[in-house]
Each structure stands twice: as C-alpha cells, then as structure tokens.
Amino acid sequence: MQITVVDMAPSDAEAVSRLADTLIGPGYYPPEEVVDALERSTLGGVVCSHVAIARDDGRMVGFRFAMPPGRWRHGRGSRLSPQLWPVDLGDCGYFQSSYVAFEARGHGVGPQMAAAAEAALRSLGARAIVTHSWKESPDNSSFRYLTRLGFTAVTEYPGYWSEVDYVCWLDGKPCQCTAIEMIKVLVPG
Ligand SMILES: CC(C)(COP(=O)(O)OP(=O)(O)OC[C@H]1O[C@@H](n2cnc3c(N)ncnc32)[C@H](O)[C@@H]1OP(=O)(O)O)[C@@H](O)C(=O)NCCC(=O)NCCS
Fold first, then answer.
1. Which of 113, 133, 160, 185 satisfies CB 3.0 to 4.6 Å to 180 for a cystine?
2. Domain with 147 in it
C-alpha cells in the first residue's frame, strides 16, 4: 500500500473522529477534541500530529497525535510518573494515540507517522518522548510497535482510560484497559 504522511489539519477533524470511533471506540475523539489536541500539538508553526493518506483513493488510513514540550501535562488519563524518568517533564514531548486502519496494518504506516512526529518534536527541542502503550492491544501490537521504535517501559496504570467518556471496544464503559507508561530518550543528559 502506497501512503503519504502529512501534517494533520483542522479540516481532518471529522475523518479522524470517524476513524477513531471505528478503531478505539465511539466517543473517544469527538471532532472538537481532535481540534483541541491538534492545537496543543502545534508550536511555532510546527505541526507534530499527522495523518496517513492512501495514494490510490485519498482515504485516511491512520492518524497520530504528538504534543511538543510545554504543550501537554498528561495524556487522556491523568496519571503520570515523571519522577521515574531520566528527563524533566518540561523537556519531554508526548505521543498520544496512533491508530492505523485494519486493512492498512503491516505496511509501515505506524512507523512512518511516528518518524514524522519524532522529527517534528526533535526540531522543537524535545529531549525525550513519553507515551502510554495499550496493554490489551491485539497481539500486543502497541507494546511491540513502541519497543521497536526505541521506547522502554516505566510503570503501569490499570484502568488508565476509565476517565475518558467513551465506549471501549474491548470492555465497554468505563474502559478497564491498562496503560504502560513508556519513554524514549532522544538527547541523553
Ligand atoms: C500498532 C500499530 C499503530 C502499528 O502500525 P502498522 O502500520 O501496522 O505497523 P507495521 O507496519 O510496522 O506492522 C506492525 C506489525 O504488524 C504485523 N502485521 C502484518 N500484517 C498485519 C495485518 N494485516 N494486521 C495486523 N498486523 C499486521 C507486522 O508484520 C508487524 O509485526 P511485528 O511487530 O512482528 O514486526 C497498529 O497495529 C495499530 O493501529 N494498532 C492498534 C492501536 C495501537 O495499539 N496503537 C499503539 C499506540 S496506543
């Protein structure tokens, strides 16, 4: 599958929201949440969030949100353990939600979107990236994907996403899934 990774734009909000309803669960990313997350992922004209577009028919097959240092305080859940990290919270970017449509998986779409986000975060001075891996993801795809990208586990939070007002495809509402907090150091200090 041939895809192009481009900066996310406000006009993508409806399509991202629809894809998220299908892949994460209804209500996880209402269009207004997409617009808010996109605003927080943009600094000095640099957009750190991206979408993947299929070249054959132009449909959206993936999205990834990323927030630069200083533009986030926690993920969709509120728990965070910066005392366990080797880099200060204020120097860390955040990877929030990366999803690829089922039919597009296994073609490197996720890694391409991650590379674009990492490059944007590096250009804004991030010294590390923090993320929350979805422990119950099918075939452990989330943890394997993030480990391959260079992330290492720090701690775990059962029921991390229970604070989010959405219906999880795995366990309904509230979501019972566990988050694995992970970090990738870009600039050791
Ligand atoms: C994790 C995810 C973003 C990876 O994206 P991707 O574009 O499929 O990544 P890759 O192309 O590198 O493939 C990842 C793995 O899926 C395998 N794969 C191949 N075909 C596949 C298919 N049809 N369906 C699912 N996985 C497939 C690949 O071989 C690769 O296996 P490996 O880990 O043993 O090397 C994607 O699987 C996804 O959206 N998962 C659900 C959400 C999720 O867990 N997000 C992670 C952060 S919260």
1. 133
2. 3-185
